[in-house]
Structure formats: structure tokens, C-alpha cells
What does this fold into?
Amino acid sequence: MEVPLASVPEGSRVVVVSVAGGVGARRRLLEMGFAPGSEVEVIANRRGPVVVRVRGVTVALGRGMAAKILVRPAGGGGG
Amino acid sequence: MGSGRRVYRVAVVGNPNVGKSTLFTRLTREIAHIANWPGTTVERKEGVLHLDGADVVLVDLPGVYSLAGVSVEEKVARDYILRGDWDAVLVLVDSLAPERTLYLAVHVLELTGRAVVALTKWDAAHARGIHVRVESLRRALGVPVVAVSAVTGEGLGELVKALREVLEGGGGEPLKVDYGLLEPAIAEVERELAGLRLGVRAQLRWIALKLLEGDEDLAKLVEGAGGGAAVGRARELREAVARSAGVDPEELAVARRFSFVDEVSRRAVVRARVSEGRGTLERLLLSPVAGPLLSLAILVSAYALVFSLNTGFPLNALLEAAGLSEMAERLESFTLSGLISSFFDAVAGYLRARLPPSPLASLLADGLLGGLALVLSFLPLILTALLVLAFLEDSGVGPYAAASLHRLFQRVGLSGRAAYPLLVALGCNVPAVMASRTAPEEAERRQLMAAVPFVPCQARLVVLLAFASAYFADSPLLAAAAFATAYAIALALFAATSLAVRRVLGAGEAPELALELPPLHKPSLRVLWWISWDYAKHYLKRAGLVIFGLSLVVWGLTSYGPSGPAEPGESYAAMAGRALAPLASFLGLSGGKAEAAVFAALAGLVAKETILLSLAALQGSTDPVEALRALELSRAQALALAVFYTAYMPCAATIATIYKESGSARFAAAAVAWSILASAAVSWLVYAAASALGL
It folds into this structure.
């Protein structure tokens, strides 16, 4: 069950499956820590940027960016 | 003497927010050299560390997440690591987030073993219950690892010692990461590359991997060295791997590097507390409604503080409104700008009294001293604005505010980070243009540099106030409406310019945000001071010279005429005003009114304050409001002229700063031309609309 990070409710823990997007933006996201397998905790996701915690760092992502990151629930087997 | 001293160069590289500026400043104290990296507006800083028997030049590379070469900063960092004249690399790893920041270290160590890793923010890591086993990291990475704290100074001596050992003894082998599925492909491309002279300081394995990751720059380099076959083979293998593994090699390589980091972290990093509690302030700043409001409140009060300290505004306006004009005046004379200008007034008065009246005395007292005073009167403003900017940035408040205001700014083609330059601009455009450098992408920087001059700075506020009291004083409601109109138009021009520049540059939709929010903390004042003083010196050296030169030119034009020294009314500037007077006809102005209006606009180039002074001088009056009334404008004309004066052109100092920051005379000229055109068009519209309303 893969969903875009932008649609994950606050407080959830998910794991990055893949990252889409243009060459530059995608590479940037990967290297900011959103590599496949990285665990992500969603801290704020209402209006405005999605705020997450990934690899010990808090990151604010514009909704467009957050839509490019596909994730699955952490812990349970997933997709 | 000193002929036996060796000079070493060390490249310093780290993620954004890793604490690089802090450590850099702490290690070197004095930043020796600031320039731009060739062909970019990215700043290049070097600092020297004097050791006994050797000097170590630290070359500060831009904060980057990797050496992929996606952004300008990454290209700069990568080019220097690949081709620069460094003797060792110092990689910074954030001990608060080793799981992320070790990535860059691994990336660099795959390239060279002549490196030292510094674990920054060691004091804060302890406080947060994060423990990093330094020895275990050293074993895993194969290079010296030193834990440091720029705040307490812990570990700095040890770091210097480790650097020295690597510099004098040479380092180990590059790190080898297992790329799993990619390994056979790497080996194959490596074989194709054998024998090529690429002129870069990287092993063939590293280059082969980069080619497989689809690095276009390196592909060009290899092709240029006759390695077309290797590049072609890499492309085929890329596709083959993507087909068979279902993931492209780039994502695979990044993921493998991160899993290497994870393996290392599992052994070396212990987090005593699993999840960090967010503070109340963080939570508030991130909430959808309170966040933007709180962010605005923080930024507005920071800005009010800076400008009250420097020029009295907006505190003086509040006092004035409360009927305490005496206190307002006293406040103004004790502000930093007030003190500097009274000092220079005193010196100029002394010179005029002692020297016989002559062109030379005038040049000295008004021209040179005036220019110097102008440059220096901006200095405290810029210094304090930079200090606040550094505080917001370093404390972490700035990034939070940027995130919470992002939605608002996206509508005008900017990201949330534009909030600070916009607010600073309300006080003075010069530091605002300088603050545009915090924008992560070049297009956004240019948008800000072109748009910021439309924001009425406090000098123009004074002009607006004078117009309001000269023509709208009888009706407070009308005065307020006129005022609001001028500000609304200014903000609309800001927004329109930003969107237009983005369009012209073809930069696409509003910039997206991927912004790190470092934990809120109390920054070290010493470091803030070092960083802002550094930039202020930069301003003095570069923009200062241009401002000084321009103000000399304007002085010459206003105090000389065809027959030598002249009164302002007979000067070249006045003649130009007469010649250009027909231009003012679009506001229905002609004759003496038009000449005065144009002359004031020309004089206002050096600083917008001069608009009122020169109008007064032309009318032979000392009261600017009287002088304005004497022009006998209609209300429609007054409003239109006020709007025009607010927007018509950046002042000399701002133009100089735009030129210096953009590094392009063409861009600065285009911004100026656009502001003249846009302000003329808008003020004509205002004139037409206000006339139609019967004003």
C-alpha cells in the first residue's frame, strides 16, 4: 500500500519506497535523507508545508515535494 | 624569515546547518579572503590557521548535501574537491544527526583518504542524550574522527593536531562502499576508463560510479578526454540495471550509501531518548493559523528593533502619532544614523569655518565627507540587520518562520524564505537586497533583487508623510487612504515584479520548499558577531566604494554648472531637470512645477531623503512641507507624484548593491529601467483614476 507522503496523517511513521520528480529535485530529496528504506515520521501535515523527521533531522517540504515521495507504513510488511 | 614555512590548503565541506560557519570562524578568527567562486555568485571564504612552522589555509566550501553537482553550490564544492589544490579535506558531520550527515562524509571519503572528520555540536549532542562512539566511527571510516564544539571550544586543539598529522603524514586509502547489484557494472566501466587522462583527483572507481549514476558533467569530461566508449557503455549498463532491478542506478547508489551509513550508525550512535519532544514554540510555529501570525510577529518585531536602533523608525512615528514629537526628535538624534550624521555635520561645519570658501573646501566638506557619511550611515543599519538575520538563521527561528509563511509567498512566485528580505526592505533596501542571498535558487534571488526596491524604505516613508501633510492634512481619512494606496501599490509592484522576473527567467512554478528545520537553540553571540561583521566588512569594501563614487558624481552634478561652481538651481542637475521637465507632463505638470519635480527625482538618486531637501532648496525654503505646498499640485497630482517617488528607481546605494550581489551590470540596469517604466505607468494610472474621482 504505497501512498504519497503528502497524504500521510500527522503522527504516522512510514518508510520511503521511492522518489519521483525531475533530476535535480529528486536527487536533492534522496540526499536529504529520503532514500528508499529511510524511516520518516510525519510531524505536521495540515495546510502549508509537510513537516517530517527523517534521519535525525526535521525537514519542511512543500506539498509538491511531499507528493513526489512514495511511502508505505513502517513496521508492517507493506506493499 | 618565514621561508621555511609550509603552506597547506584544507577544503572544509559539510551539510547546510552542520555548524560550518561557526566552526570555521572559531578556528580561524580572521577570514582572510572573500570573493566569489569563478562564474558564480557563491561566496568563497578562506581563513588562515597559523601553526608553528606551517600555515593552514582553510577553504570554506558551500554547505551541500552531496557532491552530485545538482545546485551551483554542489558544483562549486565538487569542482574544488575534484580539481582543487587542497592537501586535505575536513568533513563536518552533525553529531545531532549523524544518520543523515555521515552521508556526505562517506561520499567524500570514497574519493580521498586524506581527510579528517569533525563531529560538530558535541555539547548539544550530550544535552540531547545522543552519544557517538568516536573510536568506532574512526575504525569504520578509516580516517581520524574528532568530536568538537565551536561553542565551548572542546576538541578544537585535537582537531588541529589531527589535521596536521594528515597534512604531514598523508592519509589512508579511500573508503570502499559495497554497491551490491551495481558492482559488476562499476568494474566494467572502470576497465573502459583505464588509461584515460582525466585530470581529476578521483579514482576510476569513483568516476565509473558517477557515470552510472548519470552524472552529465562528468560524462562530458570523460568524453572530452576520449572516453566516449566508457560513457556509452555506462549508459547501456544504466538502462540494463534499471530494467533488471526495477530501480535506477542513481537511487540504488544513494540507498547503498545510506545503508552503509546505517550500518556505521548502528554501531557508533546511541540515542538515549528515542523521540525528541518538540518544544511549545516549535509546535506553535508549525500550527496552520498561529504559525504564520507568530512568524510575522517575530519578524516584524526583529525588524522594528533594528530600525528603531538605527534610525528611530518606527518608534519615532509612533511617538509622533501619540503627540510626543519632542521625544521623537530626541530619539532620532540619538539613533546610530543620527549620531553618525551629527558627527559628520560637525566635521563639515568645522571645515567650512576654517577653510576659505573655495571649490576645494566644498569638495572636501560636502562631496568627500558627504559620500563618506553616506557609506558609514548605512553601516550600522547593515551590521545590525545582518546580526538579526544571523540570529534568526542560527537560532532556527528563521527556517521555522519561512516554513510557516511559505504558502503566502508561493502566490507571488517566492518561497517562505523571502519573508525576511521583504521586511528588512521596509526599513532599508540595501540590506534587503543583500539578504536575498538566503534564497536557495538563483531565479528567486534575482526575483527578490528586482522586486525589493519597490518596497518603500523609511526614507521614502518620510517623503510620503510630507506629501500627506502638505496635501491631505485636512482629512485624516483621505490621508490614510492616500497612504494605504501608496503602500498597496508598492506591494503590488513587488509581487508583479517577482512574478515577471520568474517568468522571464523561465524558472517555472513557484519555488518548492525542502528546508531543514534545525532545533531551536540559543546561538552564541560571539559567533553571530563574527559572521555579521564579516559581511559588513564585505559591504564596506565592495558596495561602499560604488556608493561613495556615485555620491561624488551626484554632488558634482548638483554643485557645478557650465560656469563652474553653482547654486543648486543653476547646476547641471537643475539643467537636466529643465531639459527633462517635459517628461513630467504625463502627470499634467509643466513649467516650474515639472522642473522641480524632475530635479527632485534626479537628486533623489543618491538617497531618497534628498527628494524633499532638494525641493526645499529649489523653492528657497527650509521646510519641505511648505515647499511641497508651494508647488500647488492638485490632489490627484500629489498622490500620483508621491506614488512615483516611492517607486521610481532604487537609490544609488541599492543599485550598487544589486550590481554587486547579482554580479551583473546588465541585470542591475534592467532592474532600474523596469522600475522607471513600471512606476511611470502606475503613477499615470493613479493620476488618471484620482482625476476621474475628482481629487
